[in-house]
Amino acid sequence: MILKDLISIIEDFAPLSAQEKYDNAGLIVGDDNEDIDSALLCVDITEDVIDEAIRKGCGVIIAHHPIIFSPIKTITNKSYIDRVIVKAIKNSIALYACHTNLDSVHGGMSWRLAEELSIKNCQLLEGDINSMRGFGIVGELECEMDVLEFLETVKSTLNIGAIRYSDLCHTKIRKIALCTGSGGSLQESAINSGAELYLSADFKYNNYLDAKSRIIIADIGHFESEYCVIDLLFDIIRKKISTFVVHKSEETKNPINYLV
Ligand SMILES: [Zn+2]
Fold first, then answer.
1. Domain containing residue 111
2. 122 and which of 139, 158, 240, 249 could share a cystine (Cβ 3.0–4.6 Å)?
3. Is the same domain home to 215 and 232?
4. How many domains does the chain have?
């Protein structure tokens, strides 16, 4: 398959125009006229992931996080980013990122995570209702649940090492807001939505202070909240082409470890 045709399938779902201004989603390294046999899906393109792509003969790696985010002036062997880029070019492997465009489109990252956690009747948390583009969702559980019981379910469903949470100002919850990745800035919208619990990642100390008696916030981890990108991209591609080989990376790993 020609790489540009695969890219079209992804961008039909998550157009590059839907990405944030600061972002660098899209084709980052490679020739989109190359014929490729298979793709590898991951969260981050690390050296282990590029080695996996070489082993599996993948012509493109599709990641959530762009490997090049800020402008770079040199490509040497000094950082893992440089080494990944050099290895990708030497082995004719294209590097592609589907980032905030996949966060913001309807059916994107937060919608997918909500589905995995059986959160229903979802609406956009922040954004444009007409285009249905924006960040985060708010939805409901089938029935009211004990908050710690729900967090235990989230922990086991997403294989989370540890969840950090604010004061339990509710014991039972039903309405839940969530945003994959760093969603601290959406906390006020989560409160205004009437949600009892807000799941996201990378909350700061002050988020926990602000949450007190207004909402329960729970940090489920950046990687853990975004691991759903692999299944989401897999389904987007599979729906359009069933014969093309798509691998889910076995080397994509959380860079954060927990001592429990
Ligand atoms: Zn992220």
1. 106-225
2. 139
3. no
4. 2
